[in-house]
Amino acid sequence: MPTIRLHINGLTHHDIAGRREAWLQTAMGQRMVLRVAPCREDARAVAAYAGADMVGYVARTDLDTAWHALHGMGVKVLRGQVAEARDYCVVFECFVEQLAENDETAMAAVEGWHYTGPLMAEPEVWQRLDYLGEELETLLAEEAGTEDVLALFEAFCSLAPYDVSVEMLARRRRLRDMLAASDDERLQEASERMEELSRRMGGDHWMARIGAWMKHELPLLPEAKAMMGMAVPPALHAEIRQMSASLPGALLAEWLTNEVQFARQLYGMCLPRAMVRQVLSCFIWLDAAEAAAGDGQELLQMRTVVEAWAAAATKLTAEVLERNLLALCRLNLQYDHAFDDIERRLFGVLEQKAEWHPTTIYESGATHDDKRHQLFVESETNANKLLENKQ
């Protein structure tokens, strides 16, 4: 299991402020609990408690790691101990079962997104998963024969990754717990396999399979083809294009340029199935409509999408804007630098963000190409760090 270490700041402002020095002398090894504690200043805030004392808050630089751990284990509390005690902060340490890649800001933004375009019917694979999951829960509750349970279990595991919704996440956890509670050793082993499946789903192998299914196979299914045949007025077509560009986390750019990253980001958001269906419907229908319009209009239409996307840049946090800018850089290279002007504009917006901490190459008057290259390098470095934490 990976270990995480988080800095706790604010010791001089909370319960131990008046006795901070004495408290720090005995802090090493003390039990500490982190609990989600939204406040007016930060909706993602996580508070740290030692006994009855509220000690401080997780440092902003460590909040992403804290939320990855919370979502990875499906909890709102982390329990660990003080690993280091310094004058004005302590370091919290704990073991976590798995790290997720959830982006709370992006998830909240998607939940406020409303899609009014054509909607595909639920794919047959999702309906089959519902049947298999319900049957498994019923058989386990009735303590049915092991062979019957395992036959359904194998079928369920082969299809489960294709549903990235929060409902499927909850069902996998329920089944894992029910299997683990059985007296049958084979079912207990199946519980371990279910846990292993959950850990492997975020890896490149499964994300590549899921991304390819969403991008290339799902549009060929009858459910999607029926939706793509729906005629819509030009005004709604333009509105759907705007809807696709307004999704957070550079989802549109990832859909167009990096299906693996698109699948990983959608999986990490833990969205309700109805919302996943809307997002996929929007992108699949738009792809079909743009193809039908002819390749001659593709660049103009893509520029409209990118302009709408860039218009919201000033409202984004530096972290989210930097991630969006990375996706735009990839898209710009794919379209032979057709969006250089927008890319430069967004770099300017990012550099004005007070909470953004640029690297030396940004501060030394680097060229625009240097900035783009450094953004790619930092992205690769951060991805490798996240992979190391997961391992």
Protein traits:
391 residues, single chain, alpha+beta, Alpha-Beta Plaits, 6 strands
Architecture overview:
By secondary structure, the chain is α+β, with helices and mostly antiparallel strands. Among the domains are: 3-100, 2-Layer Sandwich (Alpha-Beta Plaits); 124-200, no CATH class. The chain has 18 helices and six strands. It has helices at residues 20-25, 63-73, 104-111, 124-141, 146-159, 166-180, 185-200, 204-217, 222-228, 234-246, 251-257, 259-268, 273-293, 298-311, 318-334, 340-351, 360-363, 368-390; strands spanning 3-9, 31-36, 46-50, 53-58, 77-85, 90-95. The protein has a six-stranded antiparallel barrel. A hairpin with a 2-residue loop joins strand 3 and strand 4 (53-58). Helix 6 runs antiparallel to helix 7 (185-200). The longest helix has 23 residues, at 368-390. It is flat and about 70 Å long. The termini are close together.
